[in-house]
UniProtKB/TrEMBL annotation, chains A, B:
InterPro entries: ArsR-like_HTH (IPR011991), HTH-GbsR_regulator (IPR052362), HTH_MarR-typ (IPR000835), MJ1563 (IPR026282), WH-like_DNA-bd_sf (IPR036388), WH_DNA-bd_sf (IPR036390)
UniProt name for this protein: HTH-type transcriptional regulator
GO molecular function, one term: DNA binding
Taxonomic lineage: Bacteria, Pseudomonadati, Pseudomonadota, Gammaproteobacteria, Alteromonadales
Swiss-Prot/TrEMBL keywords: DNA-binding, Transcription, Transcription regulation
Domain HTH marR-type: 22-79
Family: Belongs to the GbsR family.
Keyword Transferase: no
Species for this entry: Paraglaciecola hydrolytica
Amino acid sequence: MQLTPMLESFIMHFGEMGSRWGFNRTVGQIVALLVISEEPITANDIADALRISRGNVSMGLKELQAWRLVQLQHKPGERKEYFQACGSIWEMANRVFEERRKREMDPTLTLLRDILLDKPANGAEQHAQVKLQEIHDLLEGISKWSTELQRLGPDKLSTLMKLGSGVGKVLDLKDKLLAKPSNS
Amino acid sequence: MQLTPMLESFIMHFGEMGSRWGFNRTVGQIVALLVISEEPITANDIADALRISRGNVSMGLKELQAWRLVQLQHKPGERKEYFQACGSIWEMANRVFEERRKREMDPTLTLLRDILLDKPANGAEQHAQVKLQEIHDLLEGISKWSTELQRLGPDKLSTLMKLGSGVGKVLDLKDKLLAKPSNS
DNA sequence: TTAAACTTTCAGAAATTACTGAAACTTCAG
DNA sequence: CTGAAGTTTCAGTAATTTCTGAAAGTTTAA
């Protein structure tokens, strides 16, 4: 497993970005390597290509499996475990969004809901609760919406994205057509 | 500046989440404190309320100003600097999205564009470039689309979000109405 | 100009996070 | 059962990030 400079630069970049995307350097490198490799590869190949310890690769693959970005494969007649990126780029991106939503929004939503059940004890708490309610509603809105969007599936989403700023016009259109119900 | 347990739990939670949202613990706590405080407060108040060093507060506020989440204020006749969260929750969320797009997507887009200009040197690179192109297109799509969405402004975006899964129907509607142009 | 009241900076300490590699574990063939 | 070929775990170490606090900087009043 020899990497050309082009591929190496891509992998190293993904490593650097990894931490910004919610996983660590080596995990980023591993997933990059798996995405660009045509064939499934073994953990040893990975350790070798990235010059990192075998143990580290094992931990990284474990995490990537938790993210459902990598899957295990067995070749017939071999005992070795082979790994490959699972699904298309599109599906992988979806998984990353979903996982990040779980990590970045859900815990906060839970906490906010709990806090908002309590009666404010004084003026400061009362003012704070108004703000917390706003944060809660915004987060909940984003969270629900992103779930809906994922349900649309690639084709429709792609249409929606290509629509770009045209979205505004379509919304106007919808308002005019459905001018019967009194929706604010 | 005495914090009630309710407010403290919120602030501490934001501290923990901070690192997942792209800044560190104290920066998260500071922004939480500013959001829930009715009046602008001084850096000393912050250090005091959060039991962290004055220097740390200074660095945190500097970073928050870079994110444009916090603004400086002067009270007439006083020399002290007061700070407050700038804008509504909505605006702050917008800033966070924007900043994160810059940090998490733009560098990768730049790198991918560069790599894709090079001719693949062998089969492996050729296969890899196909994948990289897919990643590039997806990132670019998301990036452009999120820019468009921000341009829509809060009111329209809110409509769009409330539409939820109804988006699919509106898209169908649009397709039927504009059935003249041959858009795939 | 001096000093008081305030702010920022940054070297080093503390805390956190990531990585290594040896030992332990698993699975299978003979 | 034994050992070979593979995998995982985890204690300790290395690297990175964050935080402190003292020193240096700034601004204003007198």
